[in-house]
Amino acid sequence: PTTRRLADMLELPVDEHGWLLPLDSNTHPVETVRPGIFLAGAGTGPMDIPETVAHASGAAAQVLKLFSRQHKSPSVIGGAGGERQ
Predict the structure, then answer these.
(1) Which one of 13, 51, 62, 68 has the minimum C-beta count within 10 Å?
(2) How far apart, in whole angstroms, are the C-alpha atoms of residue 54 and residue 36?
């Protein structure tokens, strides 16, 4: 019941058993139909601890990728004298 409530609040699809559905279980197992919302762990179905940790690592990697795209630091190119331009 709690997973279904969360899915309703976030407007995420669930399967016939109430598990959260990834964007594509083969190619995007932690991504959802909502950009920026990622799945990790047993909300997507029963899994053991090593599988849960691997799933969470994949979701964390996607978050880092998202943040790195949003936060681009200005590039600094040194001149002949090493000055900042």
Answers:
(1) 68
(2) 19
